[in-house]
């Protein structure tokens, strides 16, 4: 039944898209589109039901759920794998097209409907989650690292952001085809929403990584993480470009290019994640699948279509105007820096493919490269923001504002200088972040703040986020030690007793007693047994503080049998017992990262609401 729904949805949506290109059939095409979207929704609901009732005759359900899986994770398991998550993306794309049913542009709905139809066809033909097999008594169960509340909501939010990118894509092509370049700015509200939703999705994924993966951080510059960051960076840049176009009446070429790039980058992100080409250098990437070819074809079509439109209509774009105002020059430079940073990350992310093409083993770009380059770009962008934001602080208060900004800048810079060697870019970035936060706070309380509220909130959040990332990166400390079962050691001011392991077959937990800041508690860090018999820790133990988190995870484990082999081989006299290698980190100022993220996303949502009301 589910396959039938998917097939019907693909057929109906393709019929809708085909009819939409003919004006007399416009009404019929829109009715058909709603019917196709409802069929997709029915298919998705049927998949959710299959998980809830434990229908293990469905291979996808059997591979991602079990009788013991809690209800909430049975539902989230719907999008835990390739097929279910792609069906969700296809459904959300159709939902995103529904507001365009009454769009005034002649080609907006036909283009968007064609994209939704392509997703529906791929979901049916290459990512069908309703493949059946002989019924099984139980399923494999959802992986432990996916049993996390943040992971339950992270994929739907991120996919919704990706799905929304079809709106500026369709509007941009329509505006250029109709030779109405001023209509490019009509996408501003949707671009704000894309930036806000995608940013929220990335943030939720960061929290999940921090609490689950056990690599000691919320961001590891993994290729799949980067591929989701690039569309967000471009969406933020596009928000500013559309602002320039609406105020100054130019930047049309950049508006068109970025509007088209958003959808292309969303497809490219999925292609990099799902094709398996980055599986050897990414902890997130799926292995190779049948989605590689259709996603590659969709991405190619998304690149070719706007390229043809631009080539045909390029003479209708006005020549670039000379920017005369100093603030506009700096504004444009800041936007260009942001765009260059986004595509630099993309280039470094897909660099392993160059090794593969050359017949060599793939190797990812070092994390230190991303960190160092990010500090430079963050500094440049914050400095441009300080110049470009129209502070409009009243005269009696400008001296106070300037003094507060200077003091805040010096405070941030010296705070880092106190604990780290001098680095021009690092400390200038900290100073710019401090000044930006101070000026934004003062401006918020200086009257007539309503028009500037989203801007101030977003830039203050970005500055606070950058300061927090720098603090976490340069001020945090970590220490590693081995602990035999029954022993107590002190690591980074924390006393840890290893009480052995609790074996539950395919999974279990490391039993630890942790004593810190006068409190003592017992905890179990879960692990999974891999097919080769080794043990992998899947969740750290985190003690949250106001300005510092204590982050403990298991880096390695040697069983009693392993120790016995070592003792016999090297003729030692040590007593063989289970032994763990623990890593204890002190994460400084992690609250700045969280607070900055919340403010940044809130500022983007506020910008969406303001742009929507201004329509």
What does it look like?
The chain has 615 residues and is of the alpha+beta class. Helix content is 61%, strand content 11%. It has 20 helices and nine strands. A five-stranded antiparallel beta sheet has the order 2-3-4-5-6, with no helix packed on it. Strand 5 (519-529) and strand 6 form a beta hairpin. The longest helix has 27 residues, at 26-52. The protein is globular. The two termini are 43 Å apart. The mean pLDDT is 83.
- In what range is the share of β-strand residues? 5-15%
Helix content, binned percent: 55-70%
Largest sheet: 5 strands, antiparallel
Q: Number of helical segments?
A: 20
Primary descriptors:
615 residues; 11% strand; 61% helix
List the helices and strands and how they pair.
Elements: H1 2-20, H2 26-52, H3 59-64, H4 71-76, H5 82-97, H6 108-125, H7 149-164, H8 166-177, H9 188-213, H10 223-248, H11 252-274, H12 292-313, H13 326-349, H14 351-357, H15 367-388, H16 395-419, H17 424-444, H18 453-475, E1 477-484, E2 488-491, E3 494-503, E4 507-516, E5 519-529, E6 535-537, E7 541-543, E8 548-558, H19 560-570, E9 579-588, H20 590-614
Antiparallel strand pairs: 1-9, 2-3, 3-4, 4-5, 5-6, 7-8, 8-9
Helix pairs in contact: 1-2, 1-6, 2-5, 5-6, 5-7, 6-8, 7-9, 8-11, 9-10, 9-20, 10-11, 10-13, 11-12, 13-15, 15-17, 15-18, 16-17, 17-18, 18-20
